[in-house]
Amino acid sequence: MSTTGHRVPVTVRGYETDANRHLNHAEYHRYGEHGREETLRAAGVEVAALAAAGLGPVILETTVRFLAELVVGDEVEIVTTTSFGAGKSFRMDAELVRVRDGATAATLTGVMGILDHATRRLVADPRGRLREVSSDPARLDDVL
């Protein structure tokens, strides 16, 4: 179980399950997306502010590794970690942790970018651009 990263709770709902009565594979991606969105919000970066700046987050690559079953009623913590390098892309990875026993149910790896809506190209400094639109850049430093 990860001890760092931004944490978001979610409970597995019945309509998210498949014929085997466990969380449908596509829902893992949705949980990852929810974790990424909430991590950005916690950093003071709202979707509306990004859009007003002519920017938007894009997923360039995502992979899920399924490790343990999640069933209806399971409480899950989505633990998202973010890392930036020197390029136009950055990582937002997540771990789905089953609360009842601390088991890692899945790991999600993700490569992201920030798209400039006018040029349809990735921006050169994604962390810097997120900082520009953050309502609280100090919070951004704490979360991202």
TrEMBL record:
The lineage of its organism: Bacteria, Bacillati, Actinomycetota, Actinomycetes, Pseudonocardiales. It is an enzyme of class 3 (hydrolase). Its EC number is 3.1.2.-. PANTHER family: 4-HYDROXYBENZOYL-COA THIOESTERASE FAMILY MEMBER, LONG-CHAIN ACYL-COA THIOESTERASE FADM. Pfam families: 4HBT_2. Gene3D superfamilies: Hotdog Thioesterase (3.10.129.10). InterPro entries: 4-hydroxybenzoyl-CoA_TE, HotDog_dom_sf. CDD domains: 4HBT. This is Acyl-CoA thioesterase. It comes from the Bacteria. Keywords: Hydrolase. One of its GO terms (molecular function) is hydrolase activity.
